[in-house]
Write a structure and sequence with these properties.
single chain, alpha+beta, globular
């Protein structure tokens, strides 16, 4: 297991943000097709879970993160922490379109990369809000007031079957179609990044993860682990270790972001 980096921080002027991240190949896979990146100074978190033969998954997820980090990261650095949410969403979709086209073209140009693609989950954390976007079954959770909420809805065949009432939650847990996504980056000419804006309060804890975590660790277990009175890097380590202890059948990636109140604001109050 890779060693988690130290927690790093961002001060938006209203809230402070602490971040920690960890990725691990798991117990079964020889390579890691997940890619994560976060820019603490921008409040930007990116996580992709690649798919495809040979090294396709690694290439797709790496391209997605690198291109979005460059294009949207550059835009966000120029726009600043108080950019309007509508402008942020437009810039995110534009960056997603660019990454989608590049991955698709790379797959066409190289026969060994044909059919590669990647899921994506990201968040732009601001002074009082978080804009969360996703494609596929990588997820974002928020822990608030000892309640865990899933902020994303999987783009998957399994989720569609659940929504249609074709299968029950119990049947879903045993379904052979658990990993079939209905939306991915780099597969079709156009793909929509589903985005939602969420308010943020001090002490909110956000978790972005690949399905290597959510498939191996139940929401109830995730809730319990996130409540542990330990630092963010240790929480990341604990989440990944639990996924491995439960089987580690896929690559596991987690990024944690916690909102805090500025000390100056506390003392002023």
């Amino acid at each position: 297991m890779a060693n988690p980096g130290s927690s790093v921080s961002l001060d938006t002027g209203v809230l402070t943000w602490d971040f920690a991240a960890l990725t691990d190949p798991g117990r079964i896979r020889a390579n890691n097709e997940d890619t994560i990146a976060f820019e603490p100074s921008l409040g930007l978190v990116l996580l992709a879970d690649g798919m495809g033969g040979y090294n396709g998954g690694e290439v797709a997820s790496g391209m997605a993160i690198a291109l979005l980090q460059a294009s949207f990261g550059r835009w966000l650095a120029h726009a600043g922490p108080y950019a309007h949410p509508k402008a942020i969403k437009r810039a995110l979709q534009a960056g997603t379109d660019e990454a989608n086209a590049a991955i698709l073209e790379a797959g066409v140009a190289n026969v060994q990369l044909q059919g590669m693609g990647t899921t994506l989950v990201l968040s732009a954390f601001g002074s009082q809000r978080a804009i969360v976007g996703h494609i596929g079954d990588s997820r974002c959770y928020r822990l608030r007031d000892e309640k865990l909420e899933l902020l994303t809805r999987d783009h998957s065949l399994l989720q569609e079957q659940l929504d249609a009432g074709v299968i029950t939650l119990e049947e879903a847990a045993l379904s052979p179609h658990r990993n079939l996504v209905t939306r991915a980056l780099g597969i079709e000419r156009q793909v929509e990044l589903e985005m939602h804006e969420h308010d943020v309060r001090a002490d909110d804890l956000f978790l972005l993860c690949s399905d290597g975590l959510s498939e191996m660790v139940s929401d109830a277990q995730i809730f319990t682990l996130l409540l542990q009175d330990i630092g963010l890097p240790d929480k990341a380590t604990l989440l990944v270790a639990t996924a491995n202890d439960n089987g580690g059948r896929d690559n596991i990636s987690v990024v944690l972001a916690r909102a805090g109140r500025r000390k100056s604001a506390d003392t002023a109050g």
